[in-house]
Design a protein that fits this description.
This protein has two helices and six strands, in the order H-H-E-E-E-E-E-E. The model has no long low-confidence stretch (mean pLDDT about 85).
Length: about 150
């Protein structure tokens, strides 16, 4: 065999880092950096506006107090609602059987309440809902409360 017939040896690797790992990465131009900064500031301002308006719309919270089942067709659910005194709300309550199936459901209107000199300025009120059930209930809870849309 001649030297022409033998396969050639691979070329030695270049010690240059640019050849090994690629060229230098491009940096962002000044214009691109300004655009990114403006977009980030606008997004931050929009987020802060959303946070401030969502807190201003008012919220309502509830707390289950207890329940009773006088007979197989009724459940009484006691609960508290905390909201702004001048705001009306709605709460849905449900009665559950031993397998946690809903056997009774009702939506209650919670009217505005008069502010008094109570510890929380009349924000928290107690309520009792009487719910008809299709079978014996073993539990009663508030499912949710909300402020109804003023446009409706």
């Amino acid at each position: 065999m001649t030297s022409k017939d033998q396969p050639s040896a691979p070329a030695p690797a270049s010690p240059s880092l640019a050849n090994r790992y690629g060229g230098q990465k491009r940096t962002l131009s000044g214009k691109t950096k300004r655009i990114i900064l403006v977009v980030a500031l606008a997004a931050g301002m929009a987020f802060m506006a959303w946070i401030s308006t969502s807190n201003a719309t008012g919220s309502v919270t509830f707390k289950d107090i207890g329940y009773s089942t006088p007979d197989a067709t009724l459940a009484e659910i006691d609960f508290q609602v905390t909201k702004e005194p001048a705001t009306a709300a709605k709460c849905s309550v449900k009665a559950l059987d031993s397998k946690f199936a809903v056997v009774g459901w009702k939506v209650l209107d919670i009217p505005p309440n008069a502010a008094d000199a109570g510890s929380d300025g009349g924000r928290t009120t107690a309520h009792r809902a009487t719910v008809r059930t299709e079978s014996q209930a073993v539990s009663g809870v508030v499912d949710s409360c909300w402020i109804p849309d003023a446009a409706k």
